[in-house]
Each structure stands twice: as structure tokens, then as C-alpha cells.
């Protein structure tokens, strides 16, 4: 479908916020012929946000601020810029955009910061260019950009299948409180999957079975943080620990400080600890800081909404 968008107004600016995520459960199957792994995962969007400010420009340009801004690519390697181009191609618009990313989600931390930027860029450019596309069209473009991008658009809590991009909303009650131990050294997602494949080179990996997450889904429906803590699961955790053995320290610190559950987030290296309350999340964060096991410590609540416009000015 090719639409004729209204030309963007000069000096028009759109601000969009998109959340980071954690995987409450990540079950990984064997690699397919292309090397991709079939997943069964439960995502939760948490209140650590990326902000993308899109403004009219003749070219496609990108600037970045926030912690670790210096390690974020500003060329075509940046997923947000790729998202903007993909949307422009889809609607046949002959305009550029300046994207400014205000990053807060850890870079290469297993919390899908790049995917959040891509989702935010899609929503921002969609508003800036007045494309007239529907939400489903944006989800389709999102899935082509990366398997975590559709979830960054929708947010809340959802079960992901396929490569993680096929989403079913999950029923949840109440709010869950988290503390995160962030490492600036980062972990490459492909490297963690390679380590996973090596650990399981004996062919012992079964197709992931969503039935294994029934206790987790019940805990979410009941708003039972204690049961959720006991059900957290990550098949990539051992691979992440293999590449970064130092991660055992924040895991142990969170357990000692009474976390209801603790897990490496996605492909790591961020460690997510589930707290009893907002107050207890601050206690867990203080334990991470005092023991010196993190470069940065965050607290957050989930679930929260996906990428949303926060302001637009003409
Ligand atoms: P995921 O959890 O989806 O595997 P992640 O949170 O571990 O992702 P990201 O922060 O999204 O990792 O980025 C991983 C790599 O992608 C970075 O090291 C960087 O080189 C590149 N990258 C591309 N676009 C971005 C972006 N907008 N922000 C941060 N990194 C980006």
C-alpha cells in the first residue's frame, strides 16, 4: 500500500517514550536452518524509558545522549534510523528526519534498548509524517526490524513465540517491583546464543513448551509476586554466565538481600531482581550498590505501556 502523506511541517517535533523489557521467562529451542532459535518467552515492559525526539529534516540524521551514549552507533547500524527509513520506504515519503535518542535503558544489556528506540522512532515518524498507517502496519514493519521490536510497540506483559515476535497479551494483576544491576561491559546477543549452542552441542535441546510457564502465568494473573519470583526462568542464563562469570556476584547479592527471584535479563548481562514492594526494590538496589557488583543500579515497576507519543509541537 502506498499512501500520500501530508508534507511534514517545518520545525514540527514529536517526542515518544518507549520502555525497556525483561524476560520473565525465556525458553530457547534448537537453532533452525538459518541459525535462529525458536523461543517461548514472557516479556514484561518496565518503567526504564528511552525517549526519541523526531524533528523534520531533509536528511536522515541521529544524535544520542544519556548514559553510555558514546557506545551507541549513529550511522545506519542504529536500529532507530533503520526504523525511520523502513517507514519512509513503506509509505513512499521523500523526506528525512532528525532523531535524537535520550537513552536510559542499558546498552547491550538484554533489556531491548535498541528495539525500544526502533519502536519509538516508528511511532514518532508516523506522527511526524502523518502517514495514516494503522497500528497493525507499524507492528508489521517492527517485526521486520527485529524480533523484540513488536513487543516494544505494544508493551505491558505478553507471551512471545516464533523468534519472540508473535505476541499474545498476558493477563496480569497489580504492579511488580524490580531492581536491576547493570554492567557497562555489555554482552553481544549473538555471542550468547553461540555459547548456548556450544553448551548444548550434544543435541539435548527440546522445542520450548509454553506449558512450562503455566505457574508463571498463574502468578501474573493472581498478582502474586512471591510465586512469580519462584517461576522466573532463563535458558540463556548459563551461557551468559559462561561468557561473564562475574554475573554470579549480583545474582548472589540479590538472593542474600531477600529478592523473591533473580534472573539474568534476556541475553544479559543485566541482572533483574524481583522485590516484595517499591521500598524493597530500593533495598535491593542499595545492596547492589554497597557490594560494588554493578556499574549502574536501577529500580523500576512493570508492566507499563509500549511506545507512546508524549508530546508533539508545531
Ligand atoms: P536485546 O535485549 O534485544 O538483545 P540489548 O538490549 O541486549 O538487545 P541493545 O542495547 O538493543 O542490546 O543493542 C545491542 C547492540 O546494537 C549495541 O551494542 C549497538 O552496537 C547496536 N545498536 C543499534 N541500535 C542501537 C540503539 N538505538 N541503541 C543501542 N544500541 C544500538
Concise summary:
Keywords: ATP-binding, Isoprene biosynthesis, Kinase, Nucleotide-binding, Transferase. The chain is of the alpha+beta class and 314 residues long.
The poorly predicted ranges are: none
CATH class type of the largest domain: Alpha Beta
Overall morphology: globular
Mean model confidence by pLDDT:
94
- Report the total helices: 10
| Largest sheet properties | 8 strands, mixed
Q: CATH topology of the largest domain, what is it called? A: Ribosomal Protein S5, domain 2
CATH architecture descriptor of the largest domain = 2-Layer Sandwich
Assign a percent range to the helix content: 25-40%
Distance from first to last alpha carbon: 28 Å
The assembly state of the depicted protein chains is: single chain
Observed structural traits:
single chain, 314 residues, alpha+beta, Ribosomal Protein S5, domain 2, Alpha-Beta Plaits, 2 domains, eight-stranded mixed β-sheet, four-stranded antiparallel β-sheet, 10 helices, 12 strands, binds adenosine-5'-triphosphate, ATP binding, transferase
Structure description:
InterPro entries: GHMP_kinase_C_dom (IPR013750), GHMP_kinase_C_sf (IPR036554), GHMP_kinase_N_dom (IPR006204), IspE (IPR004424), Ribosomal_Su5_D2-typ_SF (IPR020568), Ribsml_uS5_D2-typ_fold_subgr (IPR014721). One of its GO terms (molecular function) is 4-(cytidine 5'-diphospho)-2-C-methyl-D-erythritol kinase activity. Belongs to the GHMP kinase family. IspE subfamily. Residues 78-155 form the GHMP kinase N-terminal domain. Its EC number is 2.7.1.148. It is a single chain. The protein has 314 residues and is α+β, with helices and mostly antiparallel strands. The chain folds into 2 domains: 13-169, Ribosomal Protein S5, domain 2, CATH 3.30.230; 176-302, GHMP kinase, C-terminal domain (Alpha-Beta Plaits), CATH 3.30.70. The protein is built from 10 helices and 12 strands. The strands form 2 sheets. Strands 1, 2, 3, 4, 5, 6, 8 and 12 form an 8-stranded mixed β-sheet that branches. Strands 9-10-7-11 form a 4-stranded antiparallel β-sheet, sandwiched between helices. Strand 1 and strand 2 (37-57) form a beta hairpin. The chain starts with 12 loop residues before the first strand and ends with a strand. The chain binds adenosine-5'-triphosphate (ATP). Adenosine-5'-triphosphate binds next to helix 1 and helix 2.
